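subagent[fold] <- orchestrator: predict structure for attached chain, return tokens only, no commentary.
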Amino acid sequence: AAVRLQHVHERRYKEGMKNMNFIKLPLILFIILLWTVGSRAEGWPVKDIPAAGKSLNAFLPKGWTVEDQASGDLNGDGVSDISAILIQGKAGGSIREADDNPRALIVLLGHDKGAFILAGTNDRLLQCRGCGGVKEGVGISIRKGVIIVRQMTGSREFSDETWRFRYDPQKQRFVLIGRDMES
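subagent[fold] -> orchestrator:
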């Protein structure tokens, strides 16, 4: 009888563990879902960016500022365009003050009436502020119709990356035409 009772308890224990696993899996999936939704909500609010505006400031999402910007003719129409690196929070200050603040790249094409249209955004090209190490830094320039984005990351050992983008009128978008990396 004692052996039979032990088998009954083992069977009930195994059934209980199966039920616990059945409850654990949906709970874990729910927690992961909440975490990913929460992290996306804090990121680049591309839906809040207008398609057209009078200045770069018209395209800044709430809570974002310009960290660096460049002007030049990107599409060959003779009108100055803007490319800028935006950062969530305040630009400048120490890295500790802005640690982990995301960055995004935005490109605006100018029109002869003084307005700009949104030509493209990218929130995955650049590291967040403070994520690159002691020698972290970004910069942007425009030369001969090409957007040049530079990012340095690291400390004692570091890398310096340069991306070049050119406007493709057939595709009506910016395409990567070169990437250099020096370690």
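orchestrator: received. Logging for downstream: The longest strand covers residues 158-168. The chain has one helix and nine strands.
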